[in-house]
Amino acid sequence: MFALVAVAAMLLSCSGEREYLNYRGISMGTSAKAMCDSLLQQGLALDTFHTGETNYVLADTLACNFKVTIYHQNDTISDILEEYVATYNDSTSNLWQARHDELEKDFGWPTMRHSGDLHKEAFYENDKGTVILTLLNTYSPTLSIRYSTAKTK
After folding, report:
1. Residue/partner pairs of 134-139 with CB below 8 Å, 24 or more apart
2. Which of 19, 46, 139, 32 is nearest to 75 (CA)?
3. Which of 11, 16, 135, 152 is packed most tightly, with the most Cβ within 10 A?
4. pLDDT (average), residues 130-140
C-alpha cells in the first residue's frame, strides 16, 4: 500500500514539472552556467569581452563566424541566440534550408512572418517555448536562430 501511495505522489509531482526546449541536446531548464560549461566542452570559446552580468557569449575559435549568446536572469536561461555570418549569400541560404527542415520536424510548419529572397523569418512554437529562424541576405549575410523559454501556447 505504501509503495502505491509513493508512486502516485511521484507521478503527481512530475506531472506539474515544466518541459523546456533542448539546445544542442541540453535542456534550457538547466542553469545558464551549466549550459555555458557544456558549450565550452563542445569546442566553443568564451568571449569574455562581450560576456556580461546577464549573458554569456561564446564563439567558434577559428573563423569567428558563429556566435552563441545565452541570456539569463539569476542563472535561469530565458533565451539562446545563435548567429552565423557568411561571406556569400548561398551559404546562409543553404544553412537556412537545413535548419528550417530540422525545426519543421520538431515543431511542424512555421508561421512565416517574412518570406522574401533577402529576408525570411520563420516562427515555431509549442508548449516548451518558441524558436525564431531569421535569414538576412543583404550586404553581410546573416542567419540567426533564437530559442526562447517563453511559451505562447
Report:
1. 135/92, 135/93, 135/96, 137/89, 137/92, 137/93
2. 32
3. 135
4. 89
**pLDDT tens digits along 66-91:** 899 999 999 999 999 999 987 777 77
Alpha carbon 142 to chain centroid distance? 16
Quote the pTM value: 0.82
**What is 114-140 written as a DSSP string?**
EESSSEEEEEEEETTEEEEEEEE-SSS
* Nearby residues of 76 by Cβ (< 8 Å), 6 or more positions away: 31, 32
Decide if 55 contacts 70 (C-beta within 8 A): yes
* C-alpha radius of gyration, the chain, whole number: 18
3-state secondary structure (DSSP) of residue 43: coil
Q: Is 128 exposed, middle or buried (0-12, 13-18, 19+ CB in 10 A)?
A: buried
Mean pLDDT of the chain: 83
What's the pLDDT tens digit per position in 24-50?
889 999 999 999 999 999 989 999 888
